[in-house]
Structures are given as C-alpha cells and as structure tokens.
Design a protein that fits this description.
binds S-adenosylmethionine; 338 residues; globular; GMP Synthetase, Chain A, domain 3; Alpha-Beta Plaits; single chain; alpha/beta; 7-stranded mixed beta sheet; 3 domains; Rossmann fold
Length: 338
Amino acid sequence: MPALKVPKREAESVKRKLKKMDLYDGKRRPKREGDFVLLPIIEDEKIYSLGYEVLPVELPLRPERQIYKNLESVLAGRLSEDELKHLRRYDVIGDIAIIQIPLELEHRVDDIVWGLRKVHPFLKVIARKGFHEGAFRIRDYSIIWGEERLETVHRENGVEIKVDLSKVFFNPRMKGERYRLAQLIKDGERVLIPFAGVLPYALVIARYKKVKITAVELNRDAYELGLKNIERNRKRLKGEIEFIHGDAFEVLPKLESYDRVISPTPRGIDALALTLSKAEHWLHYYDFVHEDEIWTFRQRIIHECEKLGRECSVRVKKVSDFKPRVFKVCADVELKEK
Ligand SMILES: C[S@@+](CC[C@H](N)C(=O)[O-])C[C@H]1O[C@@H](n2cnc3c(N)ncnc32)[C@H](O)[C@@H]1O
C-alpha cells in the first residue's frame, strides 16, 4: 500500500479529504518524517490528482491489525494458504479471546487455539463467537478452551471495565471511538448516553474530562455491572456519572436536554428523533448504513433537525466494517444556535 507525502501543517486537512474520498487506509498508521507526514492511502488513480508525492512505502499496521497478522504468521506452518484466507479477525477482551471460526476451518479448531495461546500467553478462555441476539445485543458464545467463564476485566483508555459476555454487550473495537469522543468533549459539559451498556463510553469520557454524564441502560445485568464499574474506577475519574436503569424511550422524554448526546444505538432501533430532541449542541449517533445510503442517512438527520426547528451540520464517519459495503457509522451532528 502506498503513502502520500504531505507537509506536516497540511496533514490533518489532507487526511480529512482522503477520508471523504474513501482513499485513506485506516488500517495503517501515519508516520512523521521531518517536516512531512506520510499518510497511508489506498491504491487508486484518483490519488494522483491531489498533487502530492506518492511513495511506495508499507506503513505499519495499527496494533489490532498487527495482532491479527501475528496469529496468521504463527499459523502459517500449520494451515494451508487457502485455509489461512478463511481466518477471521478476533478480539481479546481481558483474558478472553473471541474468534469466529467459519465452516472451512472447523477441522482446525485445535490449531487456532494453539496459535492464539502462542500469540497471547496470558489467555485463560478462548470462545467461539456467534451472533448478537435480541434488544440487549448479547452474543452467543461457546467456550472452546480454558476456564468455563465469560466474565473478565478489560482494560482500555486508562479504565477497567468488568464485563460478563454471557449477559451483556461489549465491543472492544470501539476503543478508538471512545477516545475520540473523550478528546472532543470539553470540561464542564453535560453529556447524555442512552444505550450505555456496562458504561465503556461514560467511563472513558469521565476519566479524561470533568463532565456530568447521565447514562441510561435497560439490561439489568449491564446496569449492575456498570454501577460496579463506576466504583471500580472511582479514583481515576475526573467526571461524575449518574446511571439510570430503564428504557431509553421512556426515560429520555422525562429528562432535560444536554450539551451533548452520544447514542451507541442498538442495531435495528431507530432512536434518531429521540436522541436529537435531547441534544443542545452535539449528537453523535451510531448506526449501520450501506455505503450507497450514506447520503440518504445524512439527509434524514438534516430533515429530523428541521422538524425540531434546528439547523445542523452533519459529518458521517465510517467506524468499522459490518458486512460487505455496510458500515457501522457515527454521524457527528452539530446543532446551530437557536
Ligand atoms: C450496541 S449496545 C451498546 C452498549 C455500550 N454503549 C457499549 O458500547 O458497549 C446497545 C445497548 O443498548 C441497550 N438497550 C437496548 N434497548 C434499550 C432501550 N430501549 N433502552 C435502554 N437501553 C437499551 C442494550 O442492552 C445494550 O447494552
């Protein structure tokens, strides 16, 4: 994969432009070189129209991609090239590894367990990943190696998050998003987080910023773990978290409005009008959108703002792949002064 050599002071704006053009390779890390930055890009003719030097440089993969590559190289002697192509990305949550094993690798389960333990000697459990089910978005897992538990403590962004994967939703891949939002937020803001789960967003934000957060969650198990997570991290938190157990669609209408609302919306639920109605300045709304539908999604948000008598600007950011051409996205909605 090539890299684009741009002057340091232009790096951020060129990066934004590349992202808009879908030419930025988010799997790799940019690299500083004196007064220049090498930005990771996707091979495409359009890149030459930007007027910067294109270099044939292989920039390093982001750590999570690197981890995946490590498993691939450890297994290279045991699995055929064809089998390696079927190897999926996996997650490590605390001391539990979660991996999806497709039918083509059914006969290789023992090798995959061996490979994962070699790459991550601290693992205590390896589980096979099924699908997310129901409104609480709990995954179906089967343990293929190690202790019979799905409870663990995950560390990210300077906080400890206790999870029980058999009872609650948790996605470690959103670590970067949580950090991004924590950096956008300013001390003193009032933040509302419906669909809060075991509080990963709330904890990371409160760790970095002196804010007042109200979080809402319907799953009783997630709510109880979330309360324990507040206690567990109490000394690390600059901000305060109020946690409400209940249905966001019943609780939110009774709440005041907030400077910022963050909606890690469960798939299949439309909470756009609800969350927008509670946002004074910003809404960060997560959803799953086909890439051909991103424009329509953006228009729908603008239309919802108009219905509330508000003007807004919307930036839709692809956060992760979900299915071919379908992405988890975050719409950063800025509401203009009334
Ligand atoms: C996609 S998960 C996000 C959880 C958490 N924010 C995270 O990132 O780990 C959505 C969460 O919304 C919760 N949920 C689903 N329907 C809800 C509702 N009507 N009111 C409040 N929470 C709800 C689920 O239990 C789940 O924890």
